[in-house]
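Subject: sequence -> structure tokens, single chain

Hey, anyone have a minute? Need the predicted structure for the following. Not urgent.
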Amino acid sequence: MAIATGARPVVGVLALQGDVREHAAMVERAGARALPVRRASELSEVDGLVLPGGESTTMSRLLETFELLEPLRERIAGGLPAFGSCAGMILLARQALDGRPDQQQLGGLDVVVRRNAFGRQVDSFEADLDFTGIEGGPVHAVFIRAPWVEKAGDGVEVLASVPEMPGSDDAAARIVAVRQGAVLATSFHPELTGDERVHRLFVDLVRQA
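Reply:
Had a minute. Here:
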């Protein structure tokens, strides 16, 4: 779907569960038009899609219930730009460790993630991250029982990792933001900080796709 010069791309926000309203507000601030997506017909109208934070196993079941799982897999495989935060990152991964056996993956990213990885060590925390591709200084990141990327494939660009933090040896240097083509994912919740730079990065990807 071509986007006319100067036009606002339509960015869907998967509206089954999670931080839907917060992501929609940030998408609008980043220069796109936000559209809640609950049905395949709505998915067909968007130029890109945000998969919000929430509970990944619940979202996986709801994707099947709302008959969105296969249409979404097909659109992502066909090049639909997608951005997942926290639970959204888990859904986009090709494999999730410590998940339920029946959890479904969308496979848009060649990464292996570990669910609730930070929860066992430092639970919820905040950190300032150097983020490749984003200007204006570090990105302040809010982690809430977040996953991390355990393994990234050769085609995956690592955008951010957790810095050294006192008392958090297990968390240091863990990968928390990645990109593969038009698919972007973060372990943290950029929709909660008031800083729309990560969303602007995604909207730029949507415009370029």
